[in-house]
Amino acid sequence: MTAPRRLRRAPAVLLAAAGLVLGGCGGAASGTATASGHAHSAPASVSAPQGKYDGVNLPTPYHRPSFTLTDTSGASWDFTTVTKGKPTLLFFGYTNCPDVCPTTMADISVALRDVDKTLAQQVQVVFVTTDPKRDTTARLAQWLGNFDADLPTKFIGLTGDPSQLEQAQLSAGVPVAEDDGQTHSALLLLYGADDKAHVAFDAGNTPQDIAHDLKLVAAQS
Are residues 151 and 124 in contact, defined by beta-carbon separation less than 8 angstroms? Predict the structure, then answer.
Protein backbone atom coordinates (compact mmCIF):
# COMPACT_ATOMS: atom_id res chain seq x y z
CA MET A 1 0.00 0.00 0.00
CA THR A 2 1.48 3.36 -0.94
CA ALA A 3 0.48 6.83 0.13
CA PRO A 4 -0.72 9.04 -2.72
CA ARG A 5 1.88 11.49 -3.96
CA ARG A 6 -0.65 14.06 -5.15
CA LEU A 7 -4.32 14.54 -4.26
CA ARG A 8 -6.02 15.83 -7.39
CA ARG A 9 -9.01 18.12 -6.85
CA ALA A 10 -9.91 16.55 -3.50
CA PRO A 11 -12.57 18.52 -1.61
CA ALA A 12 -11.16 20.50 1.29
CA VAL A 13 -13.53 18.85 3.76
CA LEU A 14 -11.64 15.60 3.37
CA LEU A 15 -8.30 16.97 4.41
CA ALA A 16 -9.06 19.94 6.59
CA ALA A 17 -12.16 18.97 8.56
CA ALA A 18 -11.31 15.36 9.28
CA GLY A 19 -7.52 15.53 9.16
CA LEU A 20 -7.45 12.39 7.05
CA VAL A 21 -4.29 10.70 5.82
CA LEU A 22 -5.16 8.44 2.91
CA GLY A 23 -3.40 5.61 1.14
CA GLY A 24 -4.05 3.01 -1.47
CA CYS A 25 -2.74 -0.27 -2.80
CA GLY A 26 0.72 -0.53 -4.25
CA GLY A 27 2.99 -2.51 -6.46
CA ALA A 28 6.69 -3.18 -6.13
CA ALA A 29 7.72 0.44 -6.54
CA SER A 30 7.96 1.10 -2.81
CA GLY A 31 7.50 -0.48 0.57
CA THR A 32 8.60 -3.90 1.71
CA ALA A 33 8.48 -6.76 -0.77
CA THR A 34 6.53 -9.85 0.20
CA ALA A 35 6.63 -13.44 -0.97
CA SER A 36 3.86 -12.66 -3.47
CA GLY A 37 6.03 -10.06 -5.13
CA HIS A 38 3.89 -7.13 -4.03
CA ALA A 39 5.15 -4.32 -1.86
CA HIS A 40 3.44 -2.94 1.20
CA SER A 41 3.99 0.23 3.17
CA ALA A 42 2.58 1.22 6.55
CA PRO A 43 -1.22 1.00 6.80
CA ALA A 44 -3.25 4.08 6.04
CA SER A 45 -4.17 6.00 9.15
CA VAL A 46 -6.77 8.59 10.01
CA SER A 47 -6.64 11.15 12.78
CA ALA A 48 -9.97 12.46 14.07
CA PRO A 49 -11.60 13.24 17.41
CA GLN A 50 -12.85 10.40 19.59
CA GLY A 51 -16.60 9.91 19.64
CA LYS A 52 -19.35 7.35 20.00
CA TYR A 53 -18.26 5.31 17.01
CA ASP A 54 -15.49 2.70 17.03
CA GLY A 55 -14.48 3.78 13.55
CA VAL A 56 -13.26 7.23 12.54
CA ASN A 57 -15.68 9.83 13.89
CA LEU A 58 -16.05 12.47 11.18
CA PRO A 59 -16.41 15.97 12.67
CA THR A 60 -18.02 17.13 9.42
CA PRO A 61 -20.34 14.42 8.05
CA TYR A 62 -20.02 13.43 4.39
CA HIS A 63 -23.25 13.65 2.39
CA ARG A 64 -24.38 10.57 0.49
CA PRO A 65 -22.87 11.08 -2.98
CA SER A 66 -24.74 11.29 -6.26
CA PHE A 67 -23.48 9.24 -9.21
CA THR A 68 -24.70 6.69 -11.73
CA LEU A 69 -22.42 3.87 -12.89
CA THR A 70 -22.73 0.38 -14.40
CA ASP A 71 -23.29 -2.70 -12.23
CA THR A 72 -22.01 -6.23 -12.85
CA SER A 73 -25.09 -7.12 -14.91
CA GLY A 74 -24.35 -4.25 -17.28
CA ALA A 75 -27.29 -2.18 -16.05
CA SER A 76 -27.24 1.47 -15.04
CA TRP A 77 -27.04 1.85 -11.23
CA ASP A 78 -27.96 5.13 -9.52
CA PHE A 79 -26.19 5.18 -6.15
CA THR A 80 -28.41 7.84 -4.58
CA THR A 81 -31.71 6.31 -5.67
CA VAL A 82 -30.89 2.72 -4.76
CA THR A 83 -29.18 3.36 -1.41
CA LYS A 84 -31.15 6.38 -0.15
CA GLY A 85 -32.03 6.06 3.54
CA LYS A 86 -30.29 2.69 3.89
CA PRO A 87 -27.14 1.86 5.85
CA THR A 88 -24.54 1.83 3.08
CA LEU A 89 -20.84 0.99 3.01
CA LEU A 90 -18.93 2.58 0.11
CA PHE A 91 -15.37 1.80 -0.93
CA PHE A 92 -13.25 2.69 -3.96
CA GLY A 93 -10.56 0.23 -5.05
CA TYR A 94 -9.59 -2.42 -7.59
CA THR A 95 -9.65 -6.21 -7.74
CA ASN A 96 -5.92 -6.72 -8.36
CA CYS A 97 -5.06 -4.85 -5.18
CA PRO A 98 -2.70 -6.96 -3.04
CA ASP A 99 -3.71 -5.67 0.38
CA VAL A 100 -6.18 -2.91 1.32
CA CYS A 101 -9.07 -3.81 -1.01
CA PRO A 102 -9.42 -7.54 -0.27
CA THR A 103 -8.78 -6.91 3.42
CA THR A 104 -11.51 -4.27 3.53
CA MET A 105 -14.03 -6.50 1.75
CA ALA A 106 -13.15 -9.41 4.03
CA ASP A 107 -13.60 -7.20 7.11
CA ILE A 108 -17.05 -6.16 5.86
CA SER A 109 -17.94 -9.79 5.25
CA VAL A 110 -16.96 -10.78 8.79
CA ALA A 111 -18.81 -7.78 10.25
CA LEU A 112 -22.03 -8.66 8.43
CA ARG A 113 -21.85 -12.17 9.85
CA ASP A 114 -21.51 -10.69 13.34
CA VAL A 115 -24.70 -8.62 13.18
CA ASP A 116 -28.33 -9.70 13.25
CA LYS A 117 -29.48 -11.16 9.92
CA THR A 118 -32.23 -8.55 9.69
CA LEU A 119 -29.62 -5.79 9.83
CA ALA A 120 -27.32 -7.59 7.40
CA GLN A 121 -30.18 -7.70 4.91
CA GLN A 122 -30.56 -3.91 5.10
CA VAL A 123 -26.92 -3.03 4.52
CA GLN A 124 -25.85 -2.04 1.02
CA VAL A 125 -22.18 -2.72 0.26
CA VAL A 126 -20.92 -0.87 -2.81
CA PHE A 127 -17.46 -1.36 -4.32
CA VAL A 128 -16.51 1.08 -7.08
CA THR A 129 -13.51 0.15 -9.19
CA THR A 130 -10.69 2.60 -9.75
CA ASP A 131 -9.24 0.37 -12.49
CA PRO A 132 -11.89 0.12 -15.23
CA LYS A 133 -9.42 -1.19 -17.81
CA ARG A 134 -8.93 -4.46 -15.97
CA ASP A 135 -12.04 -4.61 -13.80
CA THR A 136 -14.66 -5.78 -16.26
CA THR A 137 -18.17 -6.43 -14.98
CA ALA A 138 -17.45 -10.17 -15.05
CA ARG A 139 -14.23 -9.72 -13.10
CA LEU A 140 -15.96 -7.54 -10.49
CA ALA A 141 -18.75 -10.08 -10.03
CA GLN A 142 -16.31 -12.97 -9.65
CA TRP A 143 -14.10 -11.12 -7.18
CA LEU A 144 -16.93 -9.85 -4.98
CA GLY A 145 -18.37 -13.35 -4.94
CA ASN A 146 -15.37 -14.36 -2.83
CA PHE A 147 -16.71 -12.21 0.00
CA ASP A 148 -20.53 -12.28 -0.15
CA ALA A 149 -21.23 -15.92 -1.06
CA ASP A 150 -23.38 -16.74 1.98
CA LEU A 151 -24.60 -13.25 2.92
CA PRO A 152 -28.28 -12.26 2.62
CA THR A 153 -27.46 -9.18 0.50
CA LYS A 154 -24.91 -9.36 -2.30
CA PHE A 155 -22.19 -6.76 -2.68
CA ILE A 156 -22.63 -4.32 -5.56
CA GLY A 157 -19.73 -3.84 -7.97
CA LEU A 158 -19.72 -0.71 -10.13
CA THR A 159 -17.65 0.52 -13.04
CA GLY A 160 -17.77 3.22 -15.69
CA ASP A 161 -15.58 5.33 -17.91
CA PRO A 162 -12.74 7.31 -16.29
CA SER A 163 -14.69 10.57 -16.19
CA GLN A 164 -17.68 8.88 -14.51
CA LEU A 165 -15.44 7.25 -11.92
CA GLU A 166 -13.66 10.53 -11.24
CA GLN A 167 -17.00 12.25 -10.70
CA ALA A 168 -18.09 9.48 -8.32
CA GLN A 169 -14.98 9.89 -6.18
CA LEU A 170 -15.30 13.67 -6.09
CA SER A 171 -18.98 13.38 -5.17
CA ALA A 172 -18.05 11.05 -2.31
CA GLY A 173 -15.41 13.52 -1.08
CA VAL A 174 -12.37 11.29 -1.59
CA PRO A 175 -9.24 12.01 -3.66
CA VAL A 176 -9.34 10.88 -7.27
CA ALA A 177 -7.33 7.66 -7.75
CA GLU A 178 -4.00 7.84 -9.56
CA ASP A 179 -1.39 5.45 -10.97
CA ASP A 180 -4.00 3.61 -13.07
CA GLY A 181 -6.25 3.34 -10.04
CA GLN A 182 -3.66 1.79 -7.75
CA THR A 183 -3.29 4.84 -5.52
CA HIS A 184 -6.75 5.46 -4.15
CA SER A 185 -8.68 6.36 -1.03
CA ALA A 186 -8.35 3.84 1.78
CA LEU A 187 -11.51 5.01 3.54
CA LEU A 188 -14.61 2.87 3.91
CA LEU A 189 -17.54 5.27 4.34
CA LEU A 190 -20.73 4.34 6.23
CA TYR A 191 -23.91 6.29 5.41
CA GLY A 192 -27.04 6.17 7.55
CA ALA A 193 -30.75 6.92 7.26
CA ASP A 194 -30.03 10.67 7.26
CA ASP A 195 -27.97 10.14 4.08
CA LYS A 196 -24.79 11.26 5.79
CA ALA A 197 -21.61 9.48 6.83
CA HIS A 198 -20.74 10.35 10.42
CA VAL A 199 -18.17 7.56 10.57
CA ALA A 200 -15.62 5.90 8.31
CA PHE A 201 -13.09 3.09 8.68
CA ASP A 202 -9.45 2.74 7.74
CA ALA A 203 -6.76 0.08 7.94
CA GLY A 204 -6.61 0.46 11.73
CA ASN A 205 -10.19 -0.70 12.22
CA THR A 206 -11.44 -4.26 12.73
CA PRO A 207 -14.55 -6.15 11.59
CA GLN A 208 -15.82 -5.74 15.16
CA ASP A 209 -15.54 -1.96 14.80
CA ILE A 210 -17.61 -2.09 11.61
CA ALA A 211 -20.23 -4.36 13.18
CA HIS A 212 -20.51 -2.13 16.25
CA ASP A 213 -21.00 1.02 14.19
CA LEU A 214 -23.45 -0.62 11.79
CA LYS A 215 -25.66 -1.37 14.78
CA LEU A 216 -25.43 2.23 15.98
CA VAL A 217 -26.20 3.67 12.56
CA ALA A 218 -29.12 1.27 12.03
CA ALA A 219 -30.56 2.17 15.46
CA GLN A 220 -30.71 5.81 14.40
CA SER A 221 -32.93 5.10 11.40
Answer: no
Please report the sign of the dihedral spanned by the C-alpha atoms of residue 96, residue 98, residue 99, residue 105: positive
Residue 27 has pLDDT above 50, yes or no: no
Contact residues for 84 (Cβ-Cβ < 8 A; gap 6+): 64, 195
Pairing of strands 68-71, 156-159: antiparallel
Q: How far apart are CA 155 and CA 145, in angstroms?
A: 8
- Residue 173's nearest CA partner among 157, 159, 189, 194 is 189
**Cβ count near 74 (within 10 Å):** 10
Q: Please, which residues have CB within 8 angstroms of residue 143's CB and are 6 or more apart in sequence? A: 95, 157
Q: What count of other Cβ atoms lies within 10 Å of the Cβ of residue 102? A: 17
Contact of 66 with 104, CB cutoff 8 Å: no
- Supply the DSSP symbol for 78: E
pLDDT at 198: 97
Its pTM stands at: 0.81
Number of residues written out for the chain:
221
Phi (first) and psi of residue 140, to 5 degrees: -60, -45
What values do phi and psi take at 90, rounded to 5? Answer: -125, 130
pLDDT digit string (tens) for 141-178?
A: 999 999 999 999 999 999 999 999 999 999 999 999 99
End-to-end CA distance of the chain: 35
